[in-house]
Every structure is written in structure tokens, then in C-alpha cells.
Specification:
Blueprint: E1 2-11, H1 13-35, H2 41-63, E2 68-71, E3 82-85, H3 94-102, E4 109-119, H4 145-163, H5 192-203, E5 212-217, E6 223-229, E7 243-250, E8 263-266, H6 268-271, H7 277-296, E9 301-307, H8 311-327, E10 332-340, E11 343-347, E12 351-352
Parallel strand pairs: 7-8, 7-9, 9-10
Antiparallel strand pairs: 1-2, 1-4, 3-4, 5-6, 10-11, 10-12
Helix pairs in contact: 1-2, 4-5, 5-8, 7-8
């Protein structure tokens, strides 16, 4: 199994001067891009070219015998070609200090390069035969497709809540469960309305059942931030007495909504990119947490969210809603609105604290 490691490479002499020039060029491009976010494609491309050239320079120096070391965790910000300089004051990180001590001349610089596919250890289950147990069979028992999906997803949530106390991380094998994975909810392939309303059902606090964070795993195998269930009291009535705003969850999905909504909550160009689904989930969660905090900073707000069916976007957004309600009860109410092939949009169950 591959692992992500981090190379620290010391550059001296002419390579040092070239590295410093590339570093300055990339930072200048990044500053210009940040100051003009509406039209920054050229500056972003310049930044990426300078960073790639700096990374290539460092790797070539390593191949030619430059001092280097390796770390299993990021020393800087976890991005390739993050530059360290040491002419005036020694760096704080001990690995960088030791590497600079090995350099032949003072004034060397250190470049951090991410090695995303380094050889790593393969973790096998703790079973004598080395095999994971077969998945449990589930029968639809004559139900129609959507009904069967809803029943199965609800059953998955029930099981996840019972077993999440062992481990909320879907990639960790908890004690006493050798050769198995903890039960995780898998949002992939769940219809939009079923996913949203069923999560809403299990997010509500129930007497005798405490809050629990359940693991989330997507179809591509990526593990997302756990989802809080049984976490907040929920009311079912939709009476938006607060400021009401309407958003499409993602832009450019249903352009007929442009005359109905106040805006788009997420930019499609940023969310619909090739990446592990769990990373998309996390991006949506972080964005939503910031935007919810900004909106409710001026008082209570009610949101109508016209949803697309991208599962990581739905899960990331509503996880942010739950965490926001846990911290600021009563400040937010959300009404899901779903697109229907056979007619107009239909409303789901509100997410609001009573």
C-alpha cells in the first residue's frame, strides 16, 4: 500500500539562488491571485509553474547527492515545494536544523516536497486466513426500489449507531473486532430525498439515546469526517419567522432556478472536481461552516436549499448544519427542496431546533 511521505532537500550554491527566485516568483503570483479572485487564472497558472519548477529542482538535486531527509508528517503546511531559509535565524523544526547542519556551506535553503506514492506497509486483518468476512446479505423482500433503498439505509444507520462507540473512524479496526471494519454509513447511491430526510430522522435527539458520531465511507473507499447522529433536538414545523433566503446547493445544476433563488451555496466548478469523495465532503463542510457563521452573525436566518444529488455535497452541508445548531441553537432553520423528474420541486423535512 502506498503512503504519503515528505522529503526535505537542502539546496546550495547556484541551486539555492534558483530556488529563491522560483520561491519569490510563486509567492508574487499567489499574492496577485488572492487580490483578484474573479480573474486569477493566469496568476494561478504562474504560481503552479513556479512551484512545479521548484519541486523539480529539489528532486534533481537529491538525485545528484544533495543532503536530504524524510518525514512521515508534514514539516510545513503539507504542500509540495514549501521553502525554508536559514541565513538569519535557525528554523524551529529539528529535522530542518539537522539537515542544514549537514550542508557544506552556510546559507543553504530547504525545500519540502510531497511524495504522494511512497512505498508503505500493507496492513492485513488480524485473521488467520487473511480474509475479511463476507458482507451481510440483505433482502428487499418485494419492496420497490426507492422504498428498499430507504429501508436499507435506515437499517445501516441503526447498525452504525450501535457500533460507532467502538470507533467513529471507518478505516480503524477497533479492539475486539479483528479482521472487521466498524460499521459505516455509505451515502453513495442513495437518492437525494432519501439521504437527506433519513439523516434528518436520525440526527434528532431521542429520549434514552445519546449522541454518537458514526463513521462515513464513500463508494470509492475514502473515509469522511464522522457524522453526528442523535445530536440536536429537532422540530418538524416550517414557520420561517426569521430572514428567509433561498439557495441552490450547487451552481449550474438547475439553471431554471436562477429566477427563484437568491444565489448558489456552492460553486460547481470548485466542488465537481476529480478527487476522493471524502475530500469533496470536507471541502463542502468547511465552506458551509464559514458561510453559516457569517449569515447567522447578523441574526436568525432560514434557508431554502434547492438540492442537487451529489452525495458528498449533501452530507458535508448537513453535517455543517448539525454542528452549527449544536453550537448556536435556534439561530438557523433549513428546508430541503428536491428536484423531481415528474413535476415541480418538492419540500423535505425541515432541519431546525424547536
Amino acid at each position: 500500500m502506498s503512503a504519503e511521505l515528505f522529503l526535505l532537500i537542502a539546496l546550495e550554491g547556484g541551486q539555492r539562488d534558483e530556488a529563491m527566485a522560483l520561491h519569490d516568483r510563486s509567492r508574487s503570483a499567489l499574492t496577485r491571485a488572492a487580490s483578484n479572485p474573479a480573474d486569477n487564472a493566469i496568476d494561478v497558472a504562474r504560481y503552479e509553474r513556479a512551484q512545479s519548477a521548484l519541486e523539480a529542482l529539489a528532486l534533481a538535486a537529491r538525485a545528484a547527492g544533495a543532503p536530504w531527509t524524510m518525514s512521515d508528517s508534514p514539516v510545513g503546511q503539507g504542500s509540495s515545494a514549501l521553502l525554508y531559509t536559514a541565513p538569519h535565524s535557525p528554523p524551529a523544526h529539528p529535522a530542518v536544523r539537522r539537515l542544514l547542519e549537514r550542508a557544506a556551506a552556510p546559507g543553504a535553503v530547504v525545500v519540502e516536497v510531497v511524495w504522494p506514492f511512497a512505498p508503505g506497509a500493507t496492513v492485513l486483518p488480524e485473521r488467520g486466513d487473511g480474509q475479511l468476512p463476507s458482507a451481510r446479505r440483505w433482502s428487499a423482500q418485494g419492496m420497490r426500489a426507492k422504498e428498499a433503498i430507504q429501508v436499507r439505509f435506515r437499517d445501516q444507520l441503526e447498525v452504525a449507531m450501535r457500533t460507532a462507540a467502538e470507533s467513529p473512524n471507518c478505516s480503524r479496526v477497533p479492539p475486539g473486532m479483528a479482521g472487521q471494519r466498524p460499521e459505516a454509513i455509505v451515502p453513495s447511491g442513495i437518492p437525494n430525498a432519501v439521504l437527506t430526510d433519513t439523516l434528518r430522522e436520525f440526527v434528532a435527539q431521542v429520549p434514552g439515546r445519546g449522541p454518537v458520531d458514526v463513521p462515513v465511507r464513500y463508494r470509492d473507499g475514502s473515509c469522511a469526517r464522522p457524522f453526528p447522529l442523535g445530536a440536536v433536538p429537532m422540530g418538524r414545523n416550517w414557520e420561517p419567522t426569521a430572514r428567509l433566503l433561498s439557495f441552490a446547493l450547487m451552481s449550474i445544476r438547475h439553471v431554471e432556478l436562477d429566477v427563484t433563488v437568491d444565489g448558489a451555496w456552492l460553486r460547481n466548478s470548485e466542488i465537481s472536481r476529480p478527487r476522493p469523495m471524502a475530500q469533496t465532503d470536507e471541502l463542502v463542510y468547511d465552506t458551509s461552516r464559514r458561510q453559516l457563521a457569517a449569515l447567522t452573525g447578523a441574526g436568525q436566518v432560514a434557508l431554502e436549499i434547492y438540492q442537487s444529488g451529489l452525495e458528498p455535497a449533501v452530507v458535508g452541508f448537513y453535517r455543517a448544519v448539525v454542528d452549527h445548531l449544536r453550537e448556536q441553537p435556534g439561530s438557523l432553520a433549513v428546508l430541503p427542496v428536491f428536484y423531481r423528474d415528474d413535476g415541480p420541486f418538492g419540500e423535505g423535512v425541515p432541519w431546525r431546533s424547536p
